[in-house]
Design a protein that fits this description.
Helix content is about 35%, strand content about 15%. It is of the alpha/beta class. The chain starts with a strand and ends in a 9-residue tail after the last helix. α1 runs parallel beside α11. It folds into two domains: about 120 residues, NAD(P)-binding Rossmann-like Domain (Rossmann fold), CATH 3.40.50; about 170 residues, Rossmann fold (3-Layer(aba) Sandwich). The protein is elongated. The chain contains eleven helices and eleven strands.
């Protein structure tokens, strides 16, 4: 059996991918909230062989996997695997697959959009004009600036390509490959820093107080990766204290963002609700890639497997 325990808000049910999955056997889809609770997640997965993971709030911990002995595959829609205990999955013989690149174009465009929105103060200017003002603030252009890209997978590589198209000098850093510039060098030189790393124990808090101290005063941080890549308190202090010129954020430590979060009171931030990849093309192609991974796994063919 194939189960989708976390189709809330619903994107899978009734889709082309759903119809294709039905050809593989029985498919059970849960459209109700509740998969964020581990006991409920385990109950929904129950005796299924395959779990299709749509939302990152469904956490496949060791405790969940232990209660689902028949589970053999967790097929993730998207790139991030921080909601899956990969070590526990390996110990229990559960394969984990994801769909890297499916949302690369959309997320990269969103990252550049956040850069522009912060640099050109678009949200603030729009609000002022609607209140009757005619603001004449000095703005920032991307051309001629230095862009530091951390993470050179499909998304980061596309951001670097778009940055160069704007006339930016791009410095890229990879956690897995040799980089032309080291982390410290990039941080000290970049006018814009864009994060596209997987969230792992090694990258959690990748940008903290030390890193903000290295960055140029007035630099802009863009994060479309995971909220945990940045130390929360250090980010608030860097913004409130004027170290950063602004931040464009699509991901947060707590999602949805809590009503009293300090970020909501900082004018030079541009916030979006973890929706950088929410386009019709990403939804269609990404969900189909998830089912392709399931098809390959069930047929004994190679799938896009993730290891710890």
């Amino acid at each position: 059996m194939i189960v989708v325990p976390d189709d809330f808000p619903s994107v899978f049910e009734g889709s082309e991918a759903h119809e294709r999955a039905k050809a593989l056997g029985e498919v059970r889809v849960f459209r109700e909230r509740g998969a964020e609770d581990e006991a409920e997640l385990a109950r929904r997965i129950d005796d299924s062989t395959v779990a299709v993971n749509i939302r990152a709030y469904a956490r496949f911990s060791d405790a969940v996997l232990a209660r689902c002995p028949k589970l053999r595959l967790v097929a993730i829609w998207g790139t991030g695997t921080d909601n899956v205990d990969l070590d526990a999955a390996a110990r229990r013989g559960v394969t984990v697959c994801n769909t890297p690149g499916a949302n690369a174009i959309a997320v990269a465009e969103h990252a550049i959009t956040l850069m522009l929105a912060v640099a050109r103060r678009i949200p603030g200017i729009d609000r002022e004009m609607r209140s009757g003002a005619w603001p004449r603030d000095m703005l920032v252009q991307l051309h001629g600036k230095t862009l530091g890209v951390f993470g050179t997978g499909a998304i980061g590589a596309r951001v670097a390509e778009l940055g160069r198209a704007f006339g930016m000098d791009v410095l890229a850093w990879s956690a897995r490959q040799g980089s032309a510039a080291d982390k410290r060098d990039i941080l000290t030189r970049a006018d814009f820093v864009s994060l596209h790393l997987r969230l792992t124990p090694e990258t959690r808090g990748f940008i903290g107080a030390r890193e903000f101290g290295l960055m140029k005063r007035g630099a802009v941080l863009v994060n479309t990766g995971r909220g945990g890549l940045v130390d929360r308190q250090a980010l608030h202090e860097a913004l409130a204290g004027g170290r950063l010129g602004g931040a464009g954020l699509d991901v947060f430590h707590d999602e949805p963002l809590a009503g009293g979060d300090p970020l909501l009171g900082i004018a030079h931030t541009v916030l979006s609700p973890h929706n950088a990849g929410q386009t019709a093309e990403v939804r269609r192609d990404g969900l189909l890639k998830v089912i392709e991974n399931v098809e390959c796994f069930l047929a004994g063919r190679p799938a896009n497997t993730v290891s710890a």
